[in-house]
Amino acid sequence: MTDKTLHIVGGGMAGSEAAWQAANLGIQVVIHEMRPKVETFAHQTGNLAEMVCSNSFRSDDSEQNAVGLLHWEMRAANGLIMAAAEQHRLPAGGALAVDRDAFAEFVTEKINAHPNITVEFGEVNEIPSTGTWIFATGPLTSPALGQAIAKETGADRLAFFDAIAPIIYHDSINMDVAWMQSRYDKGETEEEQKAYLNCPMTKDQYEAFIDALLEADKTEFHEGETAGYFDGCLPIEVMAERGRETLRFGPMKPVGLTNANDPENKPYAVVQLRRDNKLGTLYNIVGFQTKMKYGAQADVFKMIPGLEDAKFARLGGIHRNTFLNSPTLLDDQMRLKSKPNIRFAGQVTGVEGYVESAAMGLLAGRLAAHEILGKPITSPPGTTATGALIHHITGGAEAKTFQPMNVNFGLFPPVEGLKSGRRGRKDRYKAYTDRAKSQFNEWLEGQS
Ligand SMILES: Cc1cc2nc3c(=O)[nH]c(=O)nc-3n(C[C@H](O)[C@H](O)[C@H](O)COP(=O)(O)OP(=O)(O)OC[C@H]3O[C@@H](n4cnc5c(N)ncnc54)[C@H](O)[C@@H]3O)c2cc1C
Predict the structure, then answer these.
(1) What is the whole-number distance in angstroms between the Cα of residue 161 and the centre of ligand 1?
(2) Closest ligand 1 atom to the C-alpha of 12?
(3) Which residue from 223, 322, 373, 405 has the fewest beta carbons nearer than 10 Å?
(4) Average pLDDT of span 283-287
(5) Where are the domains of the chain?
């Protein structure tokens, strides 16, 4: 082992991909993986890159879908996770689903056979001050390491639960019904006074909404998952169970607001949405974290006036998830600002999903390898899927309300001169993906 060795903690989606990328650039890599010595509640095997739940990498359409585009970029960068997925692909329509055991075994074999990679089994529970490290310990980062990270970053910068309210594309909201206003017009500037998007409800609409919430299908918590979350962020359906008026006195209170589309009529309840990114393309529903099943969420939330045609960038959820407040903690090279010898990658950086996590591993592996080689590179531009994600987590997202994010076109800067709204969507997405592919290739070529 030399001081040019790259240490990677966690051999999951991100850690395996990071190791593969760095090793292919000639770097000596040691993966430190705690399983099977120390287990998590979700992993079942000692394999690297184990899929803990679904066996799908989602859409493989690289022209109309942002996650499909991420697949494309990872393939272009010789990604191991995509190669393994391709090798063990199962029929699944337009989605990329895999035989999960064969997939993880393939990744494990490739890593074990790589001459530049060593795997050491054991838990890492401190943040070293020397050496080059990538921490890719995922949503189920071991508690001891979680404590060490919290000590380094400040406890308020590391979350252990992911309480996500649904996020909606702004261009799918009906602004003839909704209006922009902050409660009591609070704020110094007009932008602040109109920071929230409001959807009004009549009494009948509110009552029907509460009924739907109470009747909706919900997912259950895994054992050990509930500790510590109930204080801060109650799911809306739990609030509704506590009393039919609870929401109207909580996140749906109608006070301090006048419906700009119908000023004479006072709404009985109001659902508020808050901007979720600097571009203003995404809005989250304030206080609407939920354990409703995905199908039920779409049905119930479309009952909200103004959201009848809502398109969701992501649906809500609450589950165990350790993640950093990356917008404040990481620089644009994924390094911890307070200890630049440490990078983070994968879901712990505040991306969500197998593909996004692997993509962040791919990037961290390349960035770290180039740094060790003395040839630093920049991250890909924000017009690419990989770049859009890294820009979002290291600066584009609102730090105060930061929650894990899937890749989606709302994170991309618009292509000028294209129609907005539903009609132009197909052309717009094609323009995004064409632009991304050419700029991702340029980024790759710039590294040789
Ligand atoms: C219950 C559950 C269900 C999920 N379902 C889905 C789903 O259906 N689809 C989806 O796309 N995503 C799902 N996710 C998210 C999923 O975990 C991530 O998408 C992906 O696995 C994250 O990749 P990662 O490499 O960041 O973390 P992981 O793949 O979890 O890898 C992290 C690795 O680090 C190891 N590790 C942790 N702490 C230490 C330590 N201190 N020392 C050494 N090693 C350590 C772990 O053992 C693990 O191998 C789910 C997550 C959970 C918790």
Answers:
(1) 14
(2) 31
(3) 223
(4) 90
(5) 6-157+324-447, 164-320
